[in-house]
Amino acid sequence: MAELLKLKSPADFIGKQGHGYISFGSGQPDLPPPKEAFEGINLTRDLRYGLIQGEFALRDALTHEYPGSTAENFVITNGASEALDLIFRIWGKGEKVLLPRPYYYSYPPIIEMAGMVPVYTDMVEGRIDLEDFRKKVTGCRAVLINSPSNPTGRVEAIETLKEIERITQNLGVYVVSDEVYKDLIYERENYHIQGNHVITVNSFSKTYCMCGVRVGYLWSADKSIVEAVCEAKTHTSMNTNLVGQDMALHAMRAPKEYILHQQEIWRARRDFMYQGLLDLGFDLWKPEGAFYVLPRCRNAREFLSLLVREYKVIAYLGEWFGAPDRLRFSYALDVKKIEEGLGRIRDAMKKVSVL
Amino acid sequence: MAELLKLKSPADFIGKQGHGYISFGSGQPDLPPPKEAFEGINLTRDLRYGLIQGEFALRDALTHEYPGSTAENFVITNGASEALDLIFRIWGKGEKVLLPRPYYYSYPPIIEMAGMVPVYTDMVEGRIDLEDFRKKVTGCRAVLINSPSNPTGRVEAIETLKEIERITQNLGVYVVSDEVYKDLIYERENYHIQGNHVITVNSFSKTYCMCGVRVGYLWSADKSIVEAVCEAKTHTSMNTNLVGQDMALHAMRAPKEYILHQQEIWRARRDFMYQGLLDLGFDLWKPEGAFYVLPRCRNAREFLSLLVREYKVIAYLGEWFGAPDRLRFSYALDVKKIEEGLGRIRDAMKKVSVL
User: Which residues of A are less than 8 Å from B50 in CB distance?
Assistant: First the structure.
C-alpha cells in the first residue's frame, strides 16, 4: 500500500497549483473575468468607509436579477463565504440547521463555529430525499441548500425546490439557498425559491471569474435578517472592500454573451470529463450544473496520495464533503489538461484498486 | 427636555456625513492615501483565489516592521476587524477575555459572538489600572488591549505595557494588542509588546487612509495561532481581497515623510480640539495618540440628540464605549470644520446642561 498523505482539508492544496501539477482540486474558474470588470475603475475614488450593507449602486444593479426587490434587500459581503458565515451567527446558539449530505466542506464548520448544530439528511443519488428531509426539518431553525451543488454537480428538480419552499414556509423554517453556481446550469433554467423565509446567497466569483476579489452578497425580503446581518458585519469586518465592489458592478455590464460563452466552455469540459471517467470505469453522476464530479472511489485516500505524489494530480477527498469512498474532481481547467489528467489517473489506477 | 433620538450604535451614523453635517463621529482619516497606493496597480492580474494567509509579498514587506519576523507570522485580513473576530473564534466557548473599559465599541460584541465572556477592568483616568488588572487577569484566556486607545485617546506608559507583557507571560494568558493607531502617537514612540503569547492586530486603514479598502493583519510568533486563524478564515471569508492587498503593498512604498506629515496634521488638530473643548469648560483627557477625545458630558443622550437634530453635529455616545456620561468626538476633520463644530457645540450648550 502506498504511503498515505496527511491530507486534512482542501486548504492543504490551496495555492499549490502549477509546477507540473494537474489540479482537479480548487473549485474556481480558470477563465479571465470580463474586460468590463477592469475598465473605468477609479482607484483614486473616496476610499473611506463605505456602507456596511454595501454600495448602493451595486445593490441597485442587483435588483434587476431579483424581480420585485429593492436595494434594501441585499447585503454585499466578502464573497459568499462571509454571507453564509454571518447568517448563522445571527441565530441562537444550539439551534439546529438541516444540511443535505454530501455538502460543501465549509458548511459544517461555519454552522458549528456559529454555535449552531448541523443535522444531516443524506441525499439519494446526489439529490435531496424529500421523505427524509420532511422528517428532519421539524424543529430546525434553518435549512441550507446548494443547487447546483458543490460537490455533487447535481441540480435539484424545480418540483423539489418548490416543495422545500412550501414545507419550510409552513413550519416557519428559514431556507438559506446558496446559489453561487446558478449561472452554470447545463440542463434547464434555475428556479429561484422565494418567500420571506428565504435567504439567497450569491457571488460574483464564479459567474465573473473573480474569486480572489471576494465579492458576494445575500438577499432577503425579511428586513430583520438584513439588519441583523449588517449589525454583525459592523463588528466583524465593516464594509466589503470598495474596489472589489466597483469591479463587481462593472463586471455586471458585461454582455450576456460573456456568460453564454462560458456556459459553452463549461459544457464541453463537463462532457469530456464525464465521458472520460465513465470510460475509465468510474461510477458517477452526470453533472447538471457547477463544475464538479464526485465519482465513487475505493481506497480513496490511498489513491489520492498516489495521484498527488507520483502523478502530480490534485483532487479532493470525498470525506471532506461528507462523502467517504468518493473523490471530488473540479473540471475547471481546459480540455487539454483534463485529457492529460485523465491519462495520469488511468495510469495510477493500475497500482491501486479503485473501482 | 429635547426629544431623545433612538441612537443605538455608531452604525446609525455610518455613511450619513455631508448635507451640512459636521461629523465628529466616524473614526477615520479624511486625508487621501499616498499616491503610491494607486500607482502601478494591475487590475488584470490573476484574480483567482489567493492564499488564505495573504499574499506572500505583502507579508514579506511587513517583516521589516516586525524585527525577527518572517512572512509566516502574519495573516492578512479584511481590516483589523476581521483579525480580531477570527482570533476570538479560535478559542473555547465560555472562556474569559479581560477588557479594559472604556473600550472600542466592537470589542464586546466580537468577544460575545465568539461565545467568549468579556470581563471588565475599569480604567483610571483613561489608563489601565494595573492593580485591578492583576486581580482579574487570572483565569482569563486572553487580554485585549488597545494603545493608543479608541475612544480615550490615551497611550499606555511603556512600563505599563512591559508589566502587562510580564504578568500575562507568567500566567500563560494571551495578549491581543490592537495597535491600529501605532503610527499616530503624539508624545513618544510606540512600545510593541512581544512574546509567543502576544497577538498583534494592525491595519493599513489609519496609517495610509484607506479604511474602505479593508486590509489589516495579525502577527503572531505562535504557529498554532496562525494556523488556527487560517483554518477559520478558510471557511468564513477565504483570502482577503487581492486588489486591496496590492494597494496595501504599494502604499508601504510611500516615503516616511507621508506618515510624518500626517502626524503634524493630526497634532495640530489634536491641539485645536483639545483646547477648544477645554475653553468650553469640558473635563477631558489630553489625547496622546489616535484622534479621539472623550469628555465628560452630563445628559449625554439629550445633548447628542440636540446636536444632531438642531445643530447638525454628529458625535458618539460614550455609553457605546462603556463610558456613560461621556461623548466621543473624533477630530478626523480639518481645523476649519472643527472650529465650526465647536461653535455649534457652544451654542447647543446654552440649551442643555452638560458640564
Answer: 15, 212
H helix intervals, chain B: 56-62, 79-89, 107-113, 130-137, 158-171, 223-236, 242-251, 256-279, 300-311, 335-348
Residue A129 corresponds to which cell in the numbers above?
A: 430525499
Query: Mean pLDDT, chain B, as a whole number?
Result: 94
Report d(CA B7, CA B16) in Å as an integer: 13
Check residue A9 and give its pLDDT. 79
* Residue A15 clears pLDDT 70, i.e. is over it: no
Beta bridge partners, A198, equal: A175
Q: Å from A159 to nearest chain B CA?
A: 31
Please list every residue in chain B whose beta carbon sits closer than 8 Å to the beta carbon of residue A230.
11
Start-to-end CA span in chain B (Å) = 16
Assess contact for B23 and B17: CB atoms under 8 A: yes
Question: Is residue B7's pLDDT more than 90?
Answer: no
C-beta atoms of B51 and A14 within 8 A: yes
Q: Is the pLDDT of residue A181 over 60?
A: yes
A47: nearest CA partner in chain B = B212
B89 closest CB neighbour out of A11, A33, A113: A113
What CATH number matches the domain at A46-251, 3.40.50.620, 1.20.1250.20, 3.40.50.720, 3.40.640.10?
3.40.640.10
Question: Is the separation of the CB atoms in B331 and B273 below 8 Å?
Answer: yes
Q: Please name the residue of chain A whose CA is at the shortest distance from the CA of residue B113.
A: A89
**Angle value at C-alpha B26, between B25 and B32, nearest 5 degrees:** 125
Q: Which residues of B touch A48 (CB under 8 A)?
A: 26, 28-30, 209, 211-212
Q: Which of A79-83, B42-46, B276-280 is predicted least confidently?
A: B42-46
Set of chain B residues whose Cβ sits within 8 Å of the Cβ of A228: none
Encode pLDDT of A259-311 as tens digits.
Answer: 899 999 999 999 999 999 999 999 999 999 999 999 999 999 999 999 999 99
Q: How many CB pairs under 8 A join A and B?
A: 174
Chain A CB contacts of B241 under 8 Å are 78, 212-215, 241, 243-244
pLDDT digits (tens, 9 = 90+) for B216-261: 999 999 999 999 999 999 999 999 999 999 999 999 999 999 999 9
Confidence check: pLDDT of A4 > 90? no
Q: Domain spanning B10-27+256-348: which CATH class is it, in words? A: alpha beta
Cross-chain residue pair B236–A82, CB shorter than 8 Å:
yes
| Cβ partners under 8 Å of residue B1, min gap 6 | B302
The pLDDT of residue A188 is 75
Asked if A26 and B33 come within 8 Å (Cβ–Cβ), the reply is no
Q: What is the ipTM of this complex?
A: 0.95
Question: Which CATH topology does A10-32+256-348 take?
Answer: Aspartate Aminotransferase, domain 1 (3.90.1150)
Of the residues B237, B245, B249, B291, the best mutation for testing chain A's interface (the one with the most A CB atoms within 10 Å of its CB) is: B237
Asked if B213 and A47 come within 8 Å (Cβ–Cβ), the reply is yes
C-alpha grid cell for residue B249?
503593498
User: Cβ B235–A106 below 8 Å, yes or no?
Assistant: yes
Q: Was domain B48-251 assigned CATH 3.40.640.10?
A: yes
How near does any CA of chain B get to the CA of A106, in Å?
5
Whose CA is closest to A8, among B225, B231, B237, B54? B231
pLDDT tens-digit readout, A190-219:
788 999 999 999 999 999 999 999 999 999
